[in-house]
């Protein structure tokens, strides 16, 4: 995982701790939303991936109703930075936001903007393709509505 962390810090310009958090959120989200068989093969192909996923707890990339509810309130309220970014994510995925919105809100809470979220996601997906192969990653991405917008 050190290789991936280094790639993200270089490509996106964020610190190691933020990169680690982002990797955990993204892998947890993919684990929760992706097909079990393909995710199992992906986790097996990336040493340390299981620890990143486990660090988020059973919920994977989704912290539950509190954060999702707060995000919904921001979007329905007077606007603001987080609500605007969340709205942009919703627009990108054509309303099929669900878990993707929750993962994006976690990444925004970690201090990432939309450009950084896309950059980190592209690095994680690229790394996953190198380690697990195009077929495995393609199966995961195909299962998650809107995920192709971030790869």
In short:
This protein is an all-alpha fold. It has helices spanning 2-12, 16-33, 36-45, 49-54, 65-76, 81-92, 98-109, 114-132, 134-143.
Note the topology:
Blueprint: H1 2-12, H2 16-33, H3 36-45, H4 49-54, H5 65-76, H6 81-92, H7 98-109, H8 114-132, H9 134-143
Helix pairs in contact: 1-2, 1-8, 2-7, 2-8, 3-9, 5-6, 6-7, 8-9
Would you give an account of this structure?
This protein is mostly helical. It has one domain. 73% of the residues lie in helices and 0% in strands. The chain contains 9 helices and no strands. The longest helix has 19 residues. The two termini are 19 Å apart.
Properties at a glance:
mainly alpha, 73% helix
Task: Tell me the number of structural domains.
Answer: 1
Strand-residue proportion: under 5%
Given as residue ranges, the uncertain stretches (5+ residues, pLDDT < 50) are: 58-96
Number of strands: 0
């Amino acid at each position: 995982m050190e290789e991936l962390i280094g790639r993200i810090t270089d490509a996106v310009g964020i610190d190691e701790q933020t990169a680690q958090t982002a990797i955990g959120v993204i892998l947890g989200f993919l684990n929760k939303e992706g097909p079990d068989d393909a995710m199992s093969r992906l986790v097996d192909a990336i040493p340390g991936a299981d620890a990143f996923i486990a660090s988020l707890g059973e919920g994977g990339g989704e912290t539950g109703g509190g954060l999702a509810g707060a995000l919904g309130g921001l979007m329905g309220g007077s606007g603001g930075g987080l609500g605007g970014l969340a709205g942009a994510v919703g627009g990108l995925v054509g309303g099929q936001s669900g878990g993707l919105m929750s993962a994006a809100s976690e990444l925004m809470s970690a201090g990432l903007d939309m450009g950084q979220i896309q950059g980190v996601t592209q690095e994680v997906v690229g790394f996953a393709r190198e380690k697990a192969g195009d077929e495995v990653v393609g199966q995961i991405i195909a299962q998650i509505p809107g995920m192709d917008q971030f790869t």
